[in-house]
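Thread title: Can someone regenerate the structure for this chain?

I was given the following input by a collaborator and told the matching structure tokens would be attached. They weren't. Posting the sequence so someone can regenerate them.
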Amino acid sequence: MLQDVTEEFLIGDSLRVNQVLLNLLSNAHKFTPEGGSIKVVVVQLSRKSSTVFLRFTVSDTGCGISEEMQERIFKPFEQESAEIAKTHGGSGLGLSITKNLVELMHGAIKLQSKKDEGMTFTVDLSFAVEQRSEEYEPTDFKDIRALVIDDDGGTIEYTSIVLERIGVQFDVAHSGEEALSIIYHRGL
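Best answer:
Regenerated them for you:
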């Protein structure tokens, strides 16, 4: 989910950002039981001149870790217990690598967790804003009509902003049933 993100074109190390998010999501998936949930949120914290500060949050409802382990979790080869390593696999290097990548990008990473209640990783990074000289005319898309279907309010909000910005006419549905109703009543 995106919150308050106003910039679409950023300059940064996409390979490292992708690796950080992949590691955090992989970790969340590994330690979240079936029926649990994982949430990713990207928030624009601020913009100063030509720099944007973003916060990436990856939360899960998995097994969490103890306070003692939180102090060591970013060190190489650290895992909470031999049982965890045996059950879930891995070398204990993923979070160490993640921390190093974040620091290489001059960012910060932190963890909040309670045993048996899940974990939340927060990564703060800065990006340069790309100044785009190529612009489009909203009238270029005036003949396009779209139907946005999603049950996630944040996704609908972001998609609506993008479609409005480029001049696309659209309707919104929060379910398949609602989409079918819109199609039927509006003759789409």
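Helices lie at 14-31, 67-70, 82-88, 94-104, 153-166, 176-186.
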